[in-house]
Design brief:
This protein is α/β, with parallel strands linked by helices. The chain has a single domain, classed as Alpha-Beta Complex (YbaK protein), CATH 3.90.960.10. 27% of the residues lie in helices and 24% in strands. It is built from 5 helices and 8 strands. Strands 1, 2, 3, 4, 5, 6, 7 and 8 form an 8-stranded mixed β-sheet that branches. The longest helix is centred in the N-terminal third of the chain and has 12 residues.
Length: 158
């Protein structure tokens, strides 16, 4: 098996450390956007859990929402109990999550990161989320996403 790129390997290591049997998959084409990911794995855009990064002080807040929806900032702010959520630039995303935009995963984040998962994702039997690299994905159930990301669920999309 070909070695995974650094970010994807970190995600795979995090999954294995948690006792998961989930496997990071490298796609031949980009999965950086929800549309690209859906096309690459053959599912609807709604089955892609896209990771949108915000910063609260120095803490990354990763909102995971369906690929066909947007984060409702007011709802997200309410559920993380705090004002001051900001959208960082690409460099700040990397500094706080250690992932590049297009590969930000809800798994393998630095300690202290918050992951908020939109409840509407539970309507699908399985989802695909980014796995630390612009061509890497992981197929997960909603329950696995919640458990392995150490995230919490809320209604945060529109």
């Amino acid at each position: 098996m070909k070695p995974l790129p650094e970010g994807a390997q970190r995600v795979q290591d995090a999954l294995m450390s948690a006792g998961s049997v989930l496997i990071v998959e490298l796609m031949p084409d980009s999965t950086s956007t929800a549309a690209e990911a859906a096309a690459a794995v053959g599912v609807t855009i709604a089955q892609i859990g896209k990771s949108i990064v915000f910063i609260q002080g120095e803490v990354p807040v990763v909102a995971v929402v369906p690929g066909d929806r947007q984060v409702d900032l007011a709802l997200l702010t309410d559920c993380v109990s705090g004002a001051g959520l900001k959208r960082p630039d690409a460099d700040r995303v990397f500094q706080t999550t250690e992932f590049r935009i297009g590969g930000v995963s809800p798994f393998g984040l630095p300690k202290g990161a918050k992951v908020v998962i939109d409840r509407s994702l539970q309507s699908h039997p399985y989802l695909y989320v980014a796995a630390g690299y612009p061509r890497a994905v992981v197929r997960v159930t909603y329950a696995e996403l919640l458990e392995l990301s150490h995230g919490f669920e809320a209604d945060i999309s529109k």
